[in-house]
Write a structure and sequence with these properties.
Oligomer: heterodimer
Number of helices of chain B: 26
Largest sheet of chain B: 2 strands, antiparallel
Distance between the termini of chain B: 72 Å
Distance between the termini of chain A: 52 Å
Radius of gyration of chain B: 30 Å
Largest interface: A-B, 14 and 13 residues
Structural class of chain A: mainly alpha
Shape of chain A: elongated
Strand content of chain A: under 5%
Structural class of chain B: mainly alpha
């Protein structure tokens, strides 16, 4: 029963992901951090499936599927932005500045 | 309320609607013609006078016979529920009784004659269809006014006739002075309407109803004799009457109202609309009977107006202005009558005045018509209404001159003409009331002096217009001619009425049976009863005194007719162009005591100043525009600016805020 350690790892991964999103300026890295957060959640779901049955694992498959689609769309958006502003630095992408 | 049986009710509903509706249909048809076919004068000629004559016939043949079915000749019919208020309701109801019958007869009868005359007078005007549309609408509203069974319905007619008056005074609106005169009439009437409205609110507060029949029936039990409530109601009501019937201090609009076409002056500003105030007092005479202070005020203001306006009439040169001040003065007489409690005398004078004043105005219209044509033919720009440009017109217009002579004798109070009987009755009533209340003796004396002045200015008008040497100019004289029959015809009928109108209420001492007195008894009885209950009924005059008063009044009238005649023709009259400037007291009279200027300085200018300097610059521009409208915009913009600071465009910041928010929600979820 590795529920406690698994949850601890997942929490650490999630925190790293959040910090990455908050701190990093490169859009690709931020994007990777978002994936990291998703996978941290996946890990939680898998860990809890030991206690609550397989539905958590089925959930994980869905999350992975959606994450794959999201990665495709997200990368396409980043590519489009790069073509437009010649940069993936998020501090330069501030057209919505009020 | 007296409930007549249902067949009488439906008859009255039918004929009453018809009487009011026919002139309204005339208004719609003429209005349509005015908009789309203003050249079709034949149609206008048929519709305009036609609907009024039809309304008159409907009243005589349909409405009046139905009166017999009601108690005391009074029938009240509810046409529909107009404003339901809680448990009670203000109904669109018409009331026909002996008083409104007299008024309907005057409005439609004299109205028909004036409509006929008006067609002759106005047929060359381009706006003749519009003119008759307004005139028909006026008749319709006037009938609403006199046939109304409650104060709010009367108020609809009251406002409606004011609207028509405004439209017709400013009928030739391309001249600014005419449009101004219309506005003046409208605004002056608004002041009076304020009084009427307050009186209505107070009546509602005291009675919980505004129906005349209920007010009359319940007044003795609801109100106390001479109490504050009834005094306030009647005084505010009289303010309304003073506006509508041109009494001091609100009379100044009526002389200016002469800017309208002459038939309008005859119909609205002499015979019918301006008598609405007298009618209202007569209608609610029980309230005035219970408020001795108000009655005294009514009679006093009437006497003062009668005297004051008559003095102004002494020194006017515009023929219509003389008649206008004469109207104000005669209306004052009517208020002396109704204020004294002699309701019949007031209504009697209202009727005879409608005859002879309509005749005078139409005669003046005939004269102006002839003068205008004469000047028009020679392209002269002299004033066609100035009596100094007339003189000797009797040989050109014998019919008009004769008829105006009859009207002059009637208004001056020479027996056996109609005005003698009605005016004498008012003066006798004032004298009788003076036996117990010395104020009324004063009113009587003022009335007598006003009668002398009336005789004087009317003799002056006749002498300047029709007699003496002609001042019109030799070339113009060729073009002077009598008016066509469509104009003189109505004049002849009005002449007969002015001559014989006294028969309506022939007093007993000349063998009459005072028909109008008995006819109006159901209407005047509650007021008389209220006075009697309070012991305030004036003592009857002895036969001796009555004869003395009559002899005195007739002597004064004849004396001043002769004086006026001789003074006017005693020396040559310069034409308007050559006339020297007025001086001394004559100038004060000619300038109407400068009342307009005083009102201008005391009221109009301060109001304009306050409006401009304070209401406009401070309240409107400062408070509403700057603080209100622009302030709201500035406030929204400031809040928007604060909000826009959050929108940095930096994704990191958004995410950080999102995380903080998410953490907060989670923390809250965990805690609870």
């Amino acid at each position: 029963m590795l529920l406690g350690p698994a949850l601890a790892v997942s929490a650490i991964l999630f925190a790293i992901g959040v910090l990455g999103v908050l701190i990093r300026r490169n859009a690709i890295v931020v994007f990777m951090c978002v994936e990291l957060m998703l996978n941290a959640v996946n890990l939680t779901l898998v860990a809890f499936s030991q206690v609550h049955g397989v539905s958590g694992q089925i959930f994980v498959f869905f999350v992975m599927t959606v994450a794959a689609a999201e990665a495709a769309v997200g990368l396409a958006i980043i590519l489009a932005i790069f073509r437009h502003v010649r940069s993936v630095d998020l501090t330069h992408i501030n057209l919505l500045n009020g | 309320m007296i409930e007549a049986n249902s067949s009488v009710q439906s008859t009255v509903a039918l004929w009453g609607s018809l009487v009011i509706g026919l002139p309204f249909i005339g208004f719609l048809l003429n209005g349509a013609l005015a908009l789309w076919k203003p050249a079709s004068k034949t149609a206008v000629a048929l519709i305009g006078p036609g609907v009024v004559i039809a309304a008159c016939a409907a009243a005589v043949l349909g409405l009046f016979p139905a009166m017999a079915g009601g108690e005391d000749g009074q029938v009240v019919v509810t046409l529909w529920h107009w404003l339901p208020v809680g448990s009670s309701s203000i109904d669109a109801a018409i009331q026909i009784d002996h008083l409104s019958a007299v008024m309907v007869l005057i409005v439609t009868g004299v109205g028909s004659l004036i409509h006929l005359f008006a067609f002759g007078y106005m047929k060359e005007d381009e706006g003749v269809a519009r003119f008759f549309a307004y005139l028909n609408l006026f008749i319709s509203f006037m009938l609403v006014l006199v046939l109304s069974a409650s104060m709010p319905v009367m108020f609809v007619g009251w406002e409606g006739v004011a609207l028509c008056s405004y439209l017709l005074i400013g009928f030739w609106y391309t001249e600014k002075a005419n449009a101004d005169a219309g506005r003046k009439a409208f605004i002056m009437n608004r002041i009076g309407d304020f009084g009427f409205l307050v009186a209505m609110f107070l009546t509602w507060g005291a009675f919980g109803t505004l129906n005349f029949a209920e007010i009359v029936a319940r007044a003795p039990s609801v109100l106390t004799y001479g109490g504050g409530v009834v005094t306030a109601i009647t005084l505010f009501m009289f303010l309304g009457c003073a506006g509508k019937s041109a009494q001091i201090p609100l009379y100044t609009w009526l002389p200016d109202a002469m800017a309208g076409p002459t038939p309008v002056s005859a119909l609205i500003h002499a015979a019918t609309m301006v008598t609405a105030g007298v009618y209202l007092v007569a209608r609610t005479n029980v309230l005035f009977a219970m408020a001795p202070v108000s009655s005294s005020v009514v009679a006093g203001v009437g006497a003062l107006t009668a005297l004051f306006a008559a003095t102004i009439g002494l020194r006017q040169y515009d023929i219509k202005k003389v008649l206008a001040y004469s109207t104000v003065s005669q209306l004052g007489y009517m208020f002396v009558g109704v204020g004294t409690g002699a309701i019949t005398a007031g209504v009697f004078h209202l009727a005879t005045h409608a005859f002879f004043k309509a005749l005078l105005f139409l005669g003046a219209g005939s004269v102006i018509h002839a003068m205008h044509h004469a000047y028009h033919s020679t392209h002269s720009h002299d004033d066609a209404q100035d009596m100094r440009n007339m003189g000797g017109l009797a040989k050109h217009m014998p019919v008009t001159a004769t008829l105006m002579g009859i009207a002059t004798l009637a208004i001056a109070g020479v027996p056996p003409f109609s005005g003698f009987f009605s005016k004498d009755e008012i003066l006798a009533a004032a004298y009788a009331a003076g036996q117990t209340d010395p104020w009324f003796k004063l009113y009587w004396a003022m009335g007598l002096v006003a009668a002398a002045l009336t005789a004087f200015y009317m003799a002056r008008l006749m002498a300047m217009t029709f007699f003496g040497s002609s001042r019109t100019g030799t070339e113009e004289q060729q073009h002077l001619h009598e008016a066509p029959w469509i104009m003189t015809g109505p004049l002849v009928i009005l002449g007969i009425l002015s001559l014989a109108g006294g028969l309506l209420n022939l007093p007993a001492f000349v063998g009459g049976n005072a028909w109008l007195e008995h006819w109006l008894e159901p209407v005047t009885a509650p007021g008389q009863a209220a006075r009697q209950a309070a012991g305030a009924l004036p003592l009857a005059l002895s036969h001796q005194t009555e004869i003395t008063l009559i002899v005195l009044a007739v002597a004064v009238a004849i004396l001043f007719l002769v004086v006026g005649w001789r003074v006017t023709l005693g020396r040559p009259i310069p034409t308007a162009r050559r006339a020297p400037a007025e001086s001394g007291f004559w100038k004060v009279l000619n300038q109407k005591y400068y009342v307009d200027e005083i009102y201008d300085a005391a009221i109009v200018r301060p109001v304009l100043f306050i409006s401009r300097a304070f209401l406009w610059k401070k309240i409107d521009q400062g408070l509403i525009d700057d603080a209100g409208v622009n302030g709201a915009a500035d406030l929204s913009r400031a809040i928007g600016w604060l909000g826009s600071r959050l929108q940095s465009g930096q994704v990191g910041l958004y995410v950080a805020l999102f995380v903080v928010g998410a953490l907060y929600v989670i923390a809250a979820a965990i805690r609870f």
